[in-house]
Specification:
Helices cover about 30% and strands about 20% of the residues. By secondary structure, it is of the alpha/beta class. The chain is elongated. The chain starts with a strand and ends in a 20-residue tail after the last strand.
């Protein structure tokens, strides 16, 4: 089976390496000329918002996935109309936007740090007063640990302006900083047949 991956970075590379012993082949769509996954998968160089590139990418695939939440939702929706995509475009719409993700977690009554939306720099002081300090300013989309995030410890105006600029402006969220001594990751997988 030929598996498609939107994105060709190191996560796509690891997925392809894990799939090769299972007899799977991989094709990645990535705008970079030589992404990390190109060494272990067929690479189609193209932009995620290019319908011609997406059509060429989708042709002949059995299933598709995406490498990270930074792939545009519109690209996954395009693919999902043509072949099985997992996780779904709807899932990406929720998990790819930090505000939508936090609101979903709150509706599910899961424990999360206090947070507030920040659409403009002028909203930041009030949002920080709402969630408390220290807090982390985070881009709503296209950020991850070390990118698009700034730890805030005070309401100093020059520090807020610098942090806002460093995360790339809005839209963003602030989230109360949670001190921790270690981080654990949990991976759960469910097959199309429902087996977990």
């Amino acid at each position: 089976m030929l598996v498609g991956i939107l994105g060709g970075g190191q996560l796509a590379r690891m997925l392809a390496l894990a799939g090769h012993p299972l007899g799977l082949r991989f094709r990645v769509l990535d705008p970079a000329e030589r992404p990390a996954a190109a060494a272990v998968a067929l690479h189609l160089c193209g932009f995620y918002d290019d319908p011609v590139a997406l059509g060429r990418f989708a042709a002949g695939l059995g299933v598709c996935t995406y490498e990270s939440e930074n792939v545009p939702v519109e690209a996954t929706a395009y693919i999902e109309r043509r072949l099985p995509l997992s996780p779904s475009a709807q899932t990406l719409a929720r998990t790819g936007d930090r505000l939508a993700e936090r609101e979903l977690l709150r509706r599910l009554e899961l424990p999360i740090a206090p947070f507030a939306a920040v659409d403009a720099l002028e909203d930041l002081p009030a949002a920080l007063l709402q969630v408390g300090l220290p807090a982390v300013l985070k881009r709503r989309r296209h950020g991850y640990d070390g990118r698009g995030q700034q730890l805030l410890r005070s309401l100093c105006e020059s520090g807020l302006v610098r942090a806002w600029r460093d995360v790339g402006g809005g839209p963003a969220i602030v989230e109360r900083h949670v001190p921790f001594t270690r981080e654990l990751a949990l991976l759960a997988v469910r097959g199309r047949d429902g087996e977990a």
